[in-house]
Amino acid sequence: MKPANTDGQAVRRKNAILGALSSAVMRLAAAVIMLWLRSSWEPEDFLAKVLLILIVLDLGSIPFIWISLKTRLKEIQGGEEDAAAQY
Description:
Elements: H1 4-38, H2 46-60, H3 62-78, H4 80-85
């Protein structure tokens, strides 16, 4: 039988991974939708340029999601929440 804090850590790890994955998928979906919208305009149009900037910013934020996940997983593994819950 595993200790209770290990079970809690497993759940927190799973939730952190699912949260990061869903956030990344939503950003990719938004980028695809914006690319689809952008295809209806000429590349020289103002809105096409604005959408391109938004797409780049949206996709550029994805690596930071994974960096945050890595930090979160280290926090969970270190047991910081378990130690704080004792007080």
